[in-house]
Design brief:
Shape of chain B: globular
Structural class of chain B: alpha/beta
Largest interface: A-B, 43 and 39 residues
Strand content of chain A: 5-15%
Structural class of chain A: alpha/beta
Number of domains of chain A: 1
Strand order of the largest sheet of chain A: 5-4-3-2-1-9-8-7-6
Shape of chain A: globular
CATH class of chain A: Alpha Beta
Number of strands of chain B: 14
Helix content of chain A: 40-55%
Strand order of the largest sheet of chain B: 3-4-14-9-10-13
Mean pLDDT of chain B: 95
Number of helices of chain B: 14
Radius of gyration of chain A: 17 Å
Strand content of chain B: 15-25%
Largest sheet of chain B: 6 strands, mixed
CATH architecture of chain A: Alpha-Beta Barrel
CATH superfamily of chain A: Aldolase class I
Number of strands of chain A: 9
Largest sheet of chain A: 9 strands, parallel
Oligomer: heterodimer
Mean pLDDT of chain A: 95
Number of helices of chain A: 12
Distance between the termini of chain A: 28 Å
Order of helices and strands of chain A: HEHEHHEHHEHEEHEHEHEHH
Low-confidence stretches of chain B: 1-6
Distance between the termini of chain B: 66 Å
Chain lengths: 269, 403
């Protein structure tokens, strides 16, 4: 059974949704990044979504772009990022770990080598932000051959046909967009698309996790009430890192507290 | 719809639609609007009328009177005079085409990226003419360096948004425009400025620039009695080159030469010669050649010519290179500046620094022992925009020589 499936089964028994925080790997440097991730887990993260820093992140808003710039400025390499993942994997053998990347990082040294590296580090899933289902063919087989679940994004305004394709090609979970646009906590969360969730369920999709703009417990509650299997919170988490760069102990405490607060909102009504 | 036939999005193994899932309906809508418009005589009439009565097409073909100075074979150089087009460069052709498509789709807000401001200016003028709301994303550094162009865009009613994320240059302006579009696609058209980006942009931009080569082909047959030996154009993103090449691709006797900016030398880190020194990768929606690090991070390009300063290139150029149909040469800043000066002195034409790269290569080629008889060069734009920049460079060089 996959780690995602085990997690969703466990949460089902506990009548909870999943809380999945996102951070950029290597932000602001390797050592701090490791402590940040441990804080998220200590706060109650059910799974992790981790981003490889990329120079041109077109699907991300300013907060996550700045995180990537911090990591790259610190000289963080892909090898560093995979070693962070391997360390966390060794400490938390059952925790689902998803990787969020951009296509050029996957193909630059060959997609096959990339997925092998993911498997060796203990990654469960890979979502390529700029690869829609239509372009996914060259990646899906390589991912599966290396035991990595391919994840695709379900847009809020997608047709039933497109949602069917997203469902058919995603394993582990489906990344459900709360709204159009890029990542960011500044814009208001719109009503989660219950229509989309219904269409995904009808297509036997993997459980949908709602992301984009999740920045407080009400958002998490709303996501779960709408039928999502959980929520992904990225920019709001990364914002805490950005604001506390000069006081690391305070940052770790704030991250743990923030995740705990969001996690507490995952209880099903 | 192209789910069943993805190949239309590709040129060999280059191209595609590497964008967030959410943008696909907007790309599909654009493709359908374009295909319909190509079959619609009313659209074609409106476009052709604008090209003729507003832009000043057809542009002339000029045989150089004094250049090349050196050629063992008496090489003749013809310039296709896109520099005489309204707006000062070829760019207005396809901008008008896309602006008409936007109206056809009922989208009245236009966003575009710009580097030095040329595409932004072209977009602003088209929006002013056609009554469209216009927002231009421009790197913060470029906004500072190109104040006259910022003012020009604002004069024509565009809102210029400085982008200070990333390196604050063209690629960051593209990123920001794409971000805007992922939120606004329902009401907004992203008027991409070059023959790159996700399908259908490379095809649309080529087709809306195809008249460059079509006119030049007819003109040179009329003037020289035959096809040219080589067709030469500068390549940044590659729009003027693909517009020039398109009608010649199926003429096996005609060599196609794209000229990339070697900046301070392709062996340095300061150039923009993507096809010469980059490697295949995925950026801004398409698989093509990219300047990148070993780990796939995008590098910043450099060229004295802002219009060629882009770390990617259109996917059809990557394909033409890979199948050997076109070859891609490079020209340094210094060679381009020398050509800039020489064309002004000898032909009374001040070329855009971008176009000066193509001319520099033509002059180099004309001097080679096996120089062909007829070279056709796309004079893609005029150099008025570069006067101040080049004046400062020459002044610095003169000061350097004196000290």
């Amino acid at each position: 059974m996959s780690r995602y499936q085990a997690m969703f089964d466990r949460l089902e028994q506990q009548q909870q949704g999943a809380l999945v925080p996102f951070v950029t790997l290597g932000d602001p440097d390797v050592a701090t990044s490791l402590s940040i991730i441990r804080s998220l887990i200590a706060g109650g993260a059910d799974a992790l979504e981790l981003g490889l820093p990329f120079s041109d992140p077109v699907a991300d808003g300013p907060t996550i772009q700045k995180a990537a710039i911090r990591a790259l400025a610190a000289g963080v390499s892909q090898a560093d990022c995979f070693s962070i993942i391997a360390t966390i994997r060794a400490e938390y053998p059952d925790l689902p770990i998803g990787l969020l990347v951009y296509a050029n990082l996957v193909v630059s040294n060959g997609a096959e080598a990339f997925y092998q590296r993911c498997q060796q580090a203990g990654v469960d899933s890979v979502l390529i932000a700029d690869v829609p289902v239509r372009e996914g063919e060259r990646f899906n087989a390589l991912a599966r051959a290396n035991g990595i679940a391919p994840i695709y994004i379900a847009p809020p305004d997608a047709s039933a046909e497109r949602l069917g394709q997203v469902a058919a090609h995603s394993e582990g979970y489906v990344y459900l967009l709360s709204r159009a646009g890029v990542t960011g906590a500044d814009t208001t969360l719109q009503a989660p698309a219950e229509r989309v969730i219904r269409a995904l369920k009808a297509a036997n999709s993997a459980p949908p996790l709602l992301g984009f703009g999740i920045s407080n417990p009400e958002h998490v509650q709303a996501a779960i009430a709408a039928g999502a299997a959980g929520a992904i919170s990225g920019s709001a988490v990364v914002k805490i890192i950005e604001q506390q760069l000069h006081d690391l102990p305070a940052m770790y405490a704030a991250l743990e507290q923030f995740v705990a607060t969001l996690k507490a909102a995952t209880n099903k009504p | 719809m192209s789910d069943n036939n993805p190949n239309r999005a590709y040129f060999g193994d280059f191209g595609g639609q590497f964008v967030p899932e959410i943008l696909l309906p907007a790309l599909d809508q654009l493709e359908q609007a374009f295909l319909d418009a190509q079959q619609d005589p009313e659209f074609q009439r409106e476009f052709t009328d604008l090209l003729k009565h507003y832009l000043g097409r057809p542009t002339p073909l000029s045989l150089c009177q004094n250049l090349p100075l050196v050629s063992p074979n008496g090489t003749k150089i013809y310039f296709k005079r896109e520099d005489l087009l309204h707006g000062g460069a070829h760019k207005t052709n396809q901008v008008l085409g896309q602006a008409l498509l936007a109206k056809r789709m009922g989208k009245h807000r236009i966003i575009a990226e710009t580097g030095a401001g040329q595409h932004g200016t072209a977009t602003a003028l088209a929006c002013a003419l056609l009554g469209l709301d216009c927002t231009i994303y421009m790197g913060a550094k470029d906004v500072e360096r190109q104040q006259p162009n910022v003012f020009r865009m604002q004069l024509m009613g565009a809102k210029v948004v400085p982008v200070d994320s990333g390196s604050g240059t063209l690629k960051d302006a593209v990123n920001e425009a794409m971000r805007d579009w992922t939120a606004s696609y329902a009401t907004t058209h992203y008027l991409l400025g070059t023959a790159a980006g996700p399908h259908p942009f490379p095809t649309i931009v080529r087709e809306f620039h195809r008249m460059i080569g079509a006119e030049a082909k007819a003109q040179i047959i009329e003037r020289a009695g035959r096809l040219p030996d080589e067709v030469i154009a500068c390549v940044g993103g590659g729009s003027n080159a693909i517009g020039m090449f398109a009608e010649f691709i199926d003429e096996p006797g005609v060599e196609l030469v794209g000229v990339e900016p070697a900046g301070k030398g392709v062996e340095t880190h300061h150039h923009g010669a993507t096809l010469t020194a980059g490697k295949p990768g995925i950026l801004h929606g398409c698989r093509s050649f990219i300047m990148q690090t070993d780990e796939g991070q995008i590098e910043e390009s450099y060229s004295v010519s802002a219009g060629l300063d882009y770390p990617g290139v259109g996917p059809q150029h990557a394909h033409l290179k890979s199948i050997g149909r076109a070859r891609y040469e490079s020209v340094t800043d210094d060679e381009a500046l020398a050509a800039f000066k020489l064309v002004a002195e000898k032909e009374g034409i001040i070329p855009a620094l971008e176009s000066a790269h193509a001319v520099a290569y033509a002059l180099r080629r004309a001097a080679e022992p096996d120089a062909p008889e007829i070279l056709l060069v796309n004079m893609s734009g005029r150099g008025d925009k570069d006067i101040d920049h080049v004046r400062k460079i020459f002044a610095l060089q003169a000061a350097g020589e004196q000290s």
